[in-house]
Amino acid sequence: MSQLFSLDAVYALCGLLLLLFAAGTIRDRQHPRRFGSALFWALLGLIFLAGGWWPHWMTGLLVLALVVIDGTGRMARGSQPASSDAPVIGKSPGPRIFWPVVAIPAMTVLLALLFRWGGLDANRGAIVGLGLGGVVAMAIALRVTGGRVGTLLAEGRRLNEAMGAVTIMPQLLASLGVIFTAARVGDLIAAGVRHVVPADHLFLLVLVNCLGMTLLTILMGNSFAAFPVIASGVLIPLLVVPFGVDPATAAILTLTAGSSGTLMTPMAANFNTVPAALLDLRNPYGVIRFQLPVALALWTFHVLWMWLVL
Fold first, then answer.
1. Structure pTM?
2. What are 137-177's pLDDT values in tens digits?
C-alpha cells in the first residue's frame, strides 16, 4: 500500500501513459511525423518510468535525444480530429460534469493532509495526490459520461500532441534554476549591481531587485526558479542585510514582482503557449499580448509599493 502512495508510483503512471500515447502515434498512419513523435513520447515515458533506477547520465542522454528530435523538426501535431464517437448521454449530467475537475484538487489536499498527519512530507503528499487525483478524475469522467477508455486515451493523446514538446518545459526550467543557483549566478549579479548602483540608494536597489527578478523569470519562465538566484545575489546581501528590512515582506514582494514576468514570456509554456495551442489561436503569442499591459502595471506597482513599505 505504501508503494501505491509514492512518487515512484506517480512517475510510473505518467510514464505508462506516455508510452500508450507513443503507441497510438505510431499506429496513426496519417500522422505527418509519426516515427519522430512516437520516439519522443516513448523516450519521455521511459524517463518517467525508469529514470529513478538507472544512472543519471542515461537520463541526461535521453533528454538530449528529446532536444535533437524536436530541434530537427521530427515532431508534429497529429492529424486526428476530436473524437466523434462520444457517448450519447440519456440525460444531462448536470453538476456531475464538474466532478472530475473537483476530484484532482480534492485528492491533492487529502493526500497532503494524510501525509502531514502521518508525520511525512506534506509537499510530497500533495504531488502524489495530484497524480492519483488524475487517475480518479479519469475514472469519474468515464462513469459520468459513459465513455470508453479508448476514447479517453485518444483524446488525451490529441491534447498532448497539441501541446507538443513544451510539455517538458517546466521540468527543464526547474533544472535550469538549480544549475543557476549551483553556479552562483546570484553572486555575479550582485557584483555587477555593486559596480552600478550606490549601496545607500534604496529606490535604485529595489528597482534593480524587481527588474532582475522579472528579467530572470522571463528567461526561465518560472518565478519560483528565479527567486533563489535573485534572493541570494541581490535581495539578501543588498537590501535585507544593509537596510534591516523585513525579509518576509521583501521576499514575497520580490517573488510576486517576478510573477509579472511570467505573464510576459513564452517560456511560461503552461500559462501562455499551451492555452494558445489548445484553443488554436492564430497568434501563438496572443495570450501574452493580452496580458502585457496588466503585467507592466503590476510590476510598476510592486516597485513603488516595495520602496514605500521597506
1. 0.68
2. 889 988 888 888 888 888 888 888 877 777 777 777 767 76
